[in-house]
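Whiteboard transcription, Tuesday session. T.W. wrote the C-alpha cells on the left side:
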C-alpha cells in the first residue's frame, strides 16, 4: 500500500485550452500522467490529486476529464484548486454522492490512510492580484475549512496527519503562515501542495524539512507528471 500525490493536471478533453504553450513539459501531458500512474500506482494505493483538475466550468464540461481521473489506478482523492469551477464548495457532499466512491472529494472532511488522516483544503497565498482585505477573507475561510478537516479526523481518534493544500503553504518570502502554523499545531508529518507552475515559481514556498515537517511540491509540470510517493 502506498500514498501518491500529483497536482494540476489541467485537463481539457472538452475544451480547447491546450497547455502546450507553457512549454515542452506540457506536450501530451495527460498521456504522460496516465502512463506514470499506471506504472506506479497499484489498485490498493491512494492517489491524491491536489487540484486544478479541469478547465471545464461546469460538471458537464468536466465529464471527460473526470472520467480520465476515474480510470487512473488506485483510490483517487481530489482537492479543490482555484480553477475547479465545477466544484461548488458548499455542495461537496453532493459530488461525493454523485461519484459514489469512484472519486473522493476532500473538503471539510478527511480520509483515512492506515493510521494517518489525510486532511486538506485549497489553502491560499498572496500573489499580488488581490486587495489585502480580499486576500485575508479568502485565507481565513480556507484556514477555517482546514481546521474543520483536522478536527473531524481528531474527533475520530486520529493523531497522525498528512496535510494537502492546492496553494503553496506560504506566500513568497514568508517563513511561516496560518497554514504552516496549523500544520505544526496539529503535528502534521507532511504538507503537500501544488499550484506553482514553471521554473520561476517552483521555489515560491517550502521544499523539504521545515521545523520538523516535510514539505513537497507536486505540481504536474514540476514532477514531469510522475506522481510523487508520499508514504
Ligand atoms: Fe494550476
Ligand atoms: Fe492553481
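and on the right, the sequence the group agreed on:
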Amino acid at each position: 500500500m502506498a500514498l501518491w500525490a500529483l497536482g494540476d493536471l489541467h485537463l481539457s478533453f472538452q475544451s480547447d485550452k491546450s497547455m502546450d504553450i507553457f512549454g515542452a513539459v506540457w506536450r501530451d501531458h495527460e498521456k504522460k500522467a496516465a502512463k506514470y500512474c499506471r506504472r506506479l500506482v497499484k489498485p490498493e494505493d491512494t492517489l491524491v490529486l491536489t487540484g486544478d483538475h479541469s478547465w471545464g466550468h461546469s460538471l458537464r464540461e468536466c465529464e471527460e476529464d473526470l472520467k480520465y481521473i476515474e480510470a487512473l489506478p488506485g483510490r483517487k482523492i481530489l482537492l479543490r484548486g482555484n480553477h475547479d469551477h465545477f466544484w461548488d464548495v458548499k455542495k461537496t457532499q453532493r459530488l461525493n454522492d454523485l461519484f459514489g466512491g469512484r472519486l473522493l472529494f476532500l473538503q471539510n472532511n478527511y480520509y483515512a490512510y492506515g493510521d494517518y488522516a489525510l486532511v486538506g483544503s485549497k489553502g491560499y497565498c498572496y500573489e499580488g492580484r488581490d486587495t489585502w482585505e480580499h486576500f485575508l477573507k479568502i485565507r481565513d475561510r480556507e484556514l477555517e475549512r482546514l481546521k474543520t478537516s483536522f478536527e473531524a479526523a481528531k474527533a475520530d481518534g486520529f493523531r497522525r496527519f498528512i496535510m494537502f493544500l492546492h496553494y503553496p503553504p506560504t506566500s513568497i518570502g514568508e517563513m511561516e503562515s496560518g497554514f504552516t502554523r496549523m500544520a505544526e499545531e496539529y503535528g502534521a508529518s507532511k504538507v503537500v501542495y501544488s499550484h506553482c507552475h514553471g521554473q520561476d515559481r517552483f521555489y515560491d514556498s517550502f521544499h523539504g524539512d521545515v521545523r520538523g515537517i516535510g514539505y513537497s511540491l507536486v505540481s504536474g509540470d514540476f514532477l514531469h507528471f510522475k506522481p510523487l510517493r508520499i508514504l
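Someone added at the bottom: Residues 77 and 113 are 11 Å apart (CA to CA).
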